[in-house]
Amino acid sequence: MGQEQHRATTRVLDILEHLASEGGAGKTLTELSVALDAPKSSLFPILHTLAQRRYVRLDRETGRYSVGISAYVLGEAYGAGRRESILRRVQELMEQVARRCEEPCQLAILDGENVLYIGKADSDQAIRMISRLGSRLPANATALGKALLSGLEDDEVRQRFSQGLPRLTDHTITDLEPLLAQLKQVRENGIAWEEEESTPHLCCVAVPLRQRGSVFAALSVSMPLFRATPEKREGVSNCLREVASEINTLAEERGISLDIL
């Protein structure tokens, strides 16, 4: 799986990723210590330096840390040039999906055994999935995750979940063989489903995105079960297949790869 990660660097990134995934409310030093399972004595000097460099912001009244302006500048630099053009087109296609399906559309990549949300287009529905960019969920519990895992060999899936499959709800698949059977179906028909495996009363359908045969991301639509009629499920699946085909063509023609998405 490559060289061992540098511990101090990993801790810096853990802090930034956790603050990004938690939204704007921020976290205290104590809360970060608990969430990251790290002593406050080791986190404080890192946070102090990050705050000085404005990668995190400290609210001195509440003692809460949140993502700072320097992190935003880095994010803007990432979107420059060709990446900006490609990502803008992908976002436009996601917004088309959200309008046609009248449900939110999400874009994600695989991060270890988790799904990392990197794009979203909301719908106008009053009842819809609430997800945040930068947040992570266990891949085994989501349609996005199953679409992404379908690009791996079974042995690699086993390796990634060597510590077991996390449970989010009573419906989450926690046995490896049923998960592998579902991944086989995704490889055959190009569609991944989950019902109440990550969130009660919610279902989700997803499609893998491919470049030169390799899955580099996945696209999904989520909806409450009471709106998930057979007709709507079919319509959502067809819509995702169409848009995935266009993104796959874009990936081939303009070189989308894992270092861009």
UniProtKB/TrEMBL annotation:
Q: Which residues form the HTH iclR-type domain?
A: 6-69
Q: Which UniProt keywords apply?
A: DNA-binding, Transcription, Transcription regulation
State the superkingdom. Bacteria
User: What would be one Pfam family of this protein?
Assistant: IclR_C
Question: In the UniProt record, does the keyword DNA-binding occur?
Answer: yes
Q: Where is the IclR-ED domain?
A: 70-253
Looking up PANTHER family in the UniProt record yields: HELIX-TURN-HELIX TRANSCRIPTIONAL REGULATOR, ICLR FAMILY, HTH-TYPE TRANSCRIPTIONAL REPRESSOR ALLR
Protein name (database record)? IclR family transcriptional regulator
